[in-house]
Amino acid sequence: MSYTWTRITGSNKVSNTPGYIGSIIATSDSDSKVYIIVYDGESSGDPIICTIRGLAGETKQIIFSPPLKTQRGLYVYMHGDTEEVLIQHSWGPE
Q1: Tell me, what's the pLDDT at 55?
Q2: pLDDT of 16-69, one tens digit each?
Q3: Architecture of domain 4-91 in CATH?
Q4: Which of 38, 39, 45, 68 could form a disulfide with 75 if both were Cys (CB 3.0 to 4.6 A apart)?
Q5: Could you tell me which of 6, 1, 27, 14 has the C-alpha nearest to residue 76?
Q6: What is the pTM of this model?
Q7: How confident is the model at residue 92 (pLDDT cuts 50, 70, 90)?
Q8: 3-state secondary structure string, 24-66?
Q9: Residue 82 vs residues 1, 49, 85, 86, 93: alpha-carbon distances, Å
Q10: Residue 10: CB atoms within 10 Å
């Protein structure tokens, strides 16, 4: 399975197809807190995969081992204070 990284800087639909997540990294600047919610689907109305929170200036990382399978796609909600999110993923067949 081949993985790629996607960078987002605001709430966004990352994929509308099932796939795998290898890692998620969320960052903030020195004055802001990290706060994101990751959904298995195309919107914030879909099931929650995880919530990531951190203190101002922190970088938070989650590594899924084995990779986490999504059933409906992937949507990431970013609170206004989160600077960016990097998602390591693979979409399509195994």
Answers
A1: 87
A2: 999 999 999 999 877 888 899 999 999 999 999 999 998 888 899 999 999 999
A3: Sandwich (2.60)
A4: 39
A5: 14
A6: 0.90
A7: low
A8: EEEEECCCCCEEEEEECCCCCCCCEEEEEEECCCCEEEEEEEE
A9: 30, 18, 8, 12, 31
A10: 11
Q: Which residues contact 60 (CB under 8 A, 6 or more apart)?
A: 25, 26, 27, 34, 52, 53, 54
Cβ–Cβ < 8 Å for 9, 79: no
Provide the CA 84 distance to its chain's centre, in angstroms: 10
What does the pLDDT read at residue 53? 92
Alpha-carbon distance of 89 to 94, in angstroms, equals 12
CA atoms within 13 A on the CB side of 72: 14
Amino acid at 89: H
